[in-house]
Each structure stands twice: as C-alpha cells, then as structure tokens.
Batch of 2 targets.
Target 1
Amino acid sequence: MQNRKSPIAAIAVGALSLCLSPIANGGVLVLKNGDRITGEISAIWDHEITIEPTYSDEFKVDSEVVAYIESSRKFDIELADGREFSATLKGANEEGEQIFVVDGNQIAAPFMQLYELDEKEQDLINDDLEIYHNDSITYYVDGRDNTIFKSTTGLRYEITDLLYANFSIDYDYETDPAATATNEDLAMLFGVGVEF
C-alpha cells in the first residue's frame, strides 16, 4: 500500500499560502494627499512606516505624509505620551485622529503621536492552527492472524474562513502483510481544501 504524494503538492500549498498572506495581513496607508498604499504593514520606527505592497518590494514611507492607517491585524503600539497597547487600526475619526481598537474599545490620538508600531508576536498555536493525532489497532480473531496498527499525525491551518491547508504523516504497520507488500507504510500528505 504505497500512497506517496508528489513534492508538487507541497510547492502548491506553499505558493498558495504566500499568495494569500498579503490578502489576509493587508493594511492601507491613507496619505494626506488622498493616495492609498495597500500592503503588509510591519513597523513604524523613527517616523517611517515600513510597508510591502503585493506589487513591490518592502519600502518606507515618511510618517508626516500619512493621514491614517487601516489594518485588521493586531500590532503592539506605543504612543508618544508613553501609552502602550495591542490594537488594530480602524482609520480616522471626524477630527482626523487615528482610531485604535483595543479589546473592542476605541482610542483616538493624532497620527503623529504614533511613536512605534511593531508586528504583534503571534502564538504558534492559535485558533487557526489545529494539531491532530489518531491511532488505531485492529486485531483479527478469525481467519488470518494479522494485527494492523495505523497512526496519523498532522496540522491543519485555516488560511481564510473558507480555505485551509493541511499536512499529515500517516504510518501503517501490518504483522502479516500481503506477499508482495512490506510490513510498514509511511506517507506524507499535503492538501488544500474549501469549507462550505
């Protein structure tokens, strides 16, 4: 029982997650002149915002030309007055102040008070990552004297609400396999799926 998958599947999963990561982690810099730059925002330091659009390499934008930021990602933020918190960036209020959403509550501050912004450290295991393991042993009491052990260990990662990727290692062992088969079978499986 050989169930080997091509390395093309692994490459496809990797490429798909790379393509989708800017969508999932995107943000928008809204400039004072009305222009918008969409991409992955990673930091504000020394009055410069680091952003990586899907169409370009990472570059920096001077904070003085930015009106506000919109991003659903959570960042570690420090304001010039010393306040520190983790928040998403909701845009601007009517006064033009940056809106920070902290645990469901909104905080507003002038954009230039945004002293430092860093990517929030992500836990390796969160609601989007599932680790699973299953073992089974089957012993036949009638007929053939054969015991079958099956073990599956894997990861399933929810890329979006509808799309997920998974990887598993399946190990099978038979005490009395068919004449042309080996006792052990090891398979690595990669997959992408859609939930409805």
Target 2
Amino acid sequence: MSLLAGLLSAVAQPSGSLVGWGNLEIRHVPAGTAFTRIAAGGARSLALKKDGTVVVWGFNDSGQSKVPENLTNIITIAAGVHHNLALKSDGTIAAWGNNFSGQTDVPAVLRSVSAVAAGFYHSVALKSDGTVVEWGQNPYSDKAMPADLRNVTSIVAGWNHTLALKKDGTVVAWGSLRCGQSVVPAGLSNVTALAAGECQSLALKKDGTVVAWGSQGSVPAGVSNVIAIASGEAHNLALKKNGTVIAWGNNLFGQTNVPSGLTNVIAIAAGFRHSLALKNDGSIVAWGANGLGESTVVTYLDNITALSGAYSHSLALKTDGTVIAFWGGPAVNIPTGSTGYATFAAGLEHGVALQRDGSVQAWGSNNHGQSRVPVGLSNVIAVAAGWNHSLALKNDGTVAAWGSNQHGQGAVPLGLSDVTAVAAGGLHIERRIYG
C-alpha cells in the first residue's frame, strides 16, 4: 500500500477500496460495480453494495459523506437533506451526518426495524410489528403522528413531513401543512408505494398510475405502467415497467432531463436537485446538479495501489500502471496514453509520476516550472510534489528539484546524498538520511 497526502487525507487499501477523512468531497460516483440500492440526499448520493457496505459521494460539510468505520451488513439506506440512515441485518440502525435537531440520535432501545426514512430535521423507522418510531425535532410540523398508527408497511420522509402506507393500501401523513403535502387526497386507496419531497407527496397505485398532492399536485399525462417513484426537492421521477424513466417538476439544474437512451433501470432516487438511476447490470447513471460532484460518473476506482490527494484534484494509480485523475483542476489532464507508472504525487495543481523505467513525467499547471521535468533526468526511484515544486530521488541517493524556489524549497543543499525518501510540503521539503 502506498500513501501520499496533500491537503485532504485519503488512502487506498490493498483490496482497492478507498478510505477518506476530513472534509473530503469525492467528486465521482464509483461506477461499474455491483450496487443493489441507491439513495440521494442534499448534494450527495449513496449506494449500497452487494457485500452490505455503503458508498457515499458529494457534499460533506457535516460528515454526511463520511461512512462510519466498520459499517457492514447493511440491507437498506436512506438519505435526508444533511444526514443518512443505514439499516443493518440485525434490525438496528446506524446514523451519521448533521445532528442539529437530534436526527442522528437513534433511540438506544430501538430494535426490530424493517425500514428507515430520513427528512430534513427528523428520522423515521418502521418496526417489524407495523408501528412507527420518529426522532429529531421538526420545527415546521403542524400535524403530529397519530398515536394509534398501526399496520404500516412502508414509510417515506419529505423535508418536513412523513408518509406511511398501511396494509390496507391507504395513506397516513403528518408534519408540515405549508404546501398541503400532509393532506392526503380523500378516497385515496390501492396504494403500493410512496415518495415525498420538500413540499410534494406522491403515491403509486396498483394500476401503475401516480397521484400527487402538495405543491406539485399534477402528474404529466401518459404516466402509466409505473413500478417505482421518487421525489427530490421539487422534482419527481417515475420508473416504468419497461425500464425507462419519466421525470417532471423543477428543471433548473437539468434534474428532469433524463439521459437519452436510458433503459434497463431497476431503481431510481431523487436528491436535492439531482437524479439517480440504478441499472440491471449494477451500474449507476446520474444527472442534474453537479456543483458538489453528486452527479459525476467516472471509471470505477478498482484495483487501486496508491492514491494521492491535493487541493483541487486527486490521483489514483491502478495495478495496470495507469493513473486516473478526478475532482477537477489542471492536474486532471493526464497525458493521453500514459501507462507504466510505478508511483506518483499530486501537487497543488500539478501531478508528477515515476515511470517503471526510472524516468519522470509531469503535467498540469506549470506557472512556476513545476511540470517542466529536467532534461535527462533518469534512474529515479521516488517522486514528491509540493504546491508549486517537484522532487525526484535518484537511485544514487541524490535529489533533483524543480519549480518554485521562492522560499528555497527548490534549492537542494549542496552535497546532499544517501537520501532514501523525499516528501514535499507547501513551501518546504523534507528529507530522510541514514548512515
């Protein structure tokens, strides 16, 4: 395993999985792997893998994209606006993210849970006996959960309201009444699934039609043969029996622009202003808002042997000697066709890679000469990258440096030899000498 740290912390494990900490916003969705469930929250996305582990990407201001350590045996997930819930196979719940209203304070005695839902300020759990438990504080609640609520089969949470589907196909709603989202249409029955957004509620009926109420009380004509529904902040999705997706509502960020040709979809999720679709091959398609990476799909980071993160980008080295760059900035522009890398380092806005033949390649920003590798540099065994300078350790124990020297960080001390490792910080370097 190799570890290279920049201005965020991340490592690649021998298995090829990634672990990150700090305010890490991985701006991609790991595609090409076997996901079984998806969920979308405020500017982030969640996916449940076949092995019972969870992947999260997108905004991380409250730790909502940092999956708790050793979180395994998960059977379903839920994403609120700023927090997440994961239901374990033993009927207990894990919660993480923003807790300003107690929404991640799972009741200590809560057991035998069969489903979870997450809103803005509150969390909801459905127990195997058909009863519902709610926690957190919803300051916009105008209508309390019925004390005698029983025989519930599924639950969903909007921003400030909750919907419960009963065994007889009827719906119960409580919470905010501001947009009428908690006022269930009279006579609504034969419901099989529910969805809720900020101010809207949806119900899927047995006949494949959809009923809406609240701020978006109308459904586009021709929405039929639907098998699943989802609601974002102000947009909605419907999955049809033929594996295609229909979207309607607010489209300011393209969240209702379903990608052309999207088929073979088996599940859908709607986030704040983005949308997700899970295909039958286990891959994920995303569209809509992407200011925090919640909709960016790139090559899956598998078979990783090293990872390096810096201010505006991240780099990953694969076992086949190729490098993947992500998260933006000039340093993501890796030279086309570059392979055979042994290791690499990420600077502020540039990257440096050591090739297996002992030569060095660099790319990205070059305003200080940090990407201009000295002519004839060879026999290199290690590299390092500072903010605006680069280092190379040769097999004879000497060091080469190039790029910014404003603070002497590029001026290698005369006579320096017998060096075994190098590292570069923002404005300085470190060296380790033995002997």
